[in-house]
């Protein structure tokens, strides 16, 4: 058992009652509890049990875009490419792509996804079609549509408030500083505070974005110069921009944050924001080096996300899948000084806190949700965290809310191979 917030437990056990964990510890102690002894016990064999992984940033509806876009020379070229590609897809293609991504997440041990949603009219059906805990952040732009911020936000509110109850939650996602207006950012900040919603935003992702807001120059500025007012450019960094317009006043998941300037990191820490790093997407674009040390020293929590397969390269092993474990393996190769325990925290406890669910998920502990993943492991306890990072392909099993939602063929004796997701 790997609680994450406590040392791994050899010959461990977890007592699950309903959708929650009642106790975690050595089997010699857990079996003494009367209610456990009287109930069914499943021996999983030589395995390691971890809390379910939490993907802090994802675009499920782009999953089937794998390999359709090549890494660009300039970041705006990729934006133009994906806008063109999206305009050619049908509702059924987006739906199939979203469901494929959800299935890949489930089969690779992710139980909770902070997903950027672009298919507002399909969202209720999509959320109902997967056992994943989906935190749906509805994307908003406004630059290309020309709609007023009030209309954009009102439409988003109508969608989110009409969604049926779900295992996850909802939030708002103004796409990025360059694709939204200052007025929309301020409106989002105000309503998020009122509703108690989280906000996520791509910010300070690329050098062209940084040059646009700092210096009124560069490829992104040139492309958008005639498409949006640019009086908000040349006034400071992208992070200063979102702070100036109130976006740091609500709990923010700031995605990418590759270009820092001045006191940007301290600004994030002071406002309680979390940063989401997406290792494979970062490598795809060749962004500036992720400034982990600067953020960590300032006290900014770091989470890991998959981003989308539209910005993930194939490897010698084949086409990529939407897997947080693969992101961890990329991170380990990029930054070998990081400990497995620290990396594991960035896909469990850190994103749980960023979503306002500290102690509720992301760890194995009394009272937490019974979301777990299982992988084979017959090695020493000391190597169990590294074993997860080096694991390839589907996990043995994934449980969400006390129910096995994915079991690989031959995975658990007495339980048939299955997946709830169609």
Provide a descriptive summary of the structure in words:
This protein is of the alpha/beta class and about 425 residues long. The protein has 2 domains: about 10-50 and about 365-420, Roll (Urease, subunit C, domain 1), CATH 2.30.40; about 55-355, TIM Barrel. The chain is about 35% helix and about 20% strand. The chain contains 17 helices and 15 strands. It has helices spanning about 25-30, 35-40, 75-90, 90-105, 125-130, 150-160, 180-195, 205-215, 220-225, 240-245, 265-270, 280-285, 290-300, 325-335, 340-345, 350-355, 385-390; strands at about 10-15, 20-25, 45-50, 55-60, 110-115, 135-140, 170-175, 200-205, 250-255, 275, 300-305, 370-375, 395-400, 405, 420. The strands form 3 sheets. Strands 4-5-6-7-8-9-10-11 form an 8-stranded parallel β-sheet. Strands 3-12-13-14-15 form a 5-stranded antiparallel β-sheet, covered by helices on one side. α11 links the parallel β9 (about 250-255) and β10 (about 275). The longest helix has 17 residues, at about 90-105. The two termini are about 30 Å apart.
Find the CATH topology of the largest domain. Answer: TIM Barrel
Count of helical stretches: 17
Compute the number of structural domains: 2
Low-confidence stretches: none
Name the helicity range. Answer: 25-40%
Average pLDDT figure? 95
CATH class of the largest domain: Alpha Beta
Relevant CATH superfamily of the largest domain: Metal-dependent hydrolases
| Spatial strand arrangement across the major sheet | 4-5-6-7-8-9-10-11
The appropriate CATH architecture of the largest domain is Alpha-Beta Barrel
> How can the largest sheet be summarized?
8 strands, parallel
Task: Give the CA-based shape.
Answer: globular
The N- to C-terminal Cα distance equals 30 Å
The gyration radius over C-alpha positions equals 21 Å
The count of strands amounts to 15
Q: What class do helices, strands and sheet pairing give?
A: alpha/beta
Q: What percent of residues are in strands?
A: 15-25%
